[in-house]
Amino acid sequence: MKCYAVIDTNVLVSSLLTQNSESATVGVIKLVADGSVVPVFSKEILKEYNEVLHRKKFHFSEECIQRLLDMFTYFGLEMTPNSIDEELPDPKDMPFYEVTMEIREDKGYLVTGNKKHFPIRPYIVDAREFVNIVDQL
User: Fold this and answer.
1) 126 to 49, 111, 117: CA distances (angstroms)
2) What interhelical angle do 9-17 and 43-53 show, nearest 10?
3) Which of 8, 49, 75, 111 is most exposed, with minimal Cβ within 10 Å?
4) How many angstroms separate the CA atoms of 67 and 27, rounded?
5) Which DSSP symbol is given to 18?
6) What is the pLDDT of residues 36-83, one digit of tens each?
7) pTM
8) CB of 39 closer than 8 Å to CB of 32
């Protein structure tokens, strides 16, 4: 069974920064790479990924960034979500929430390192929770 996930930028950054190849954030990326998880995104989310991953403070190589973005666009599903009339603590998180609400019926999850920025919902999970969910499918 395929699982769909909107992956917050902080999960991508964490997966690239960690030295621990067994970390949950690396596990999320591995699930995308092996085809167990379909990443779902909008143009706005891809734009944020690109901008954040290119921040000089992270020192990510262009090759590393491009491989990650290519993997998402190749294996992923791009969509244009409907607007949602709901407030979040950080309005910049709205694109992630809107896409999540579009895929919710298709076993979709929002994977984030900042759950407190979103409403409490069973489909808004951190990386460890998500890896455990996929392992049980």
Assistant:
1) 18, 5, 12
2) 30
3) 75
4) 16
5) -
6) 999 999 999 999 999 999 999 999 999 999 999 999 999 999 999 999
7) 0.94
8) yes
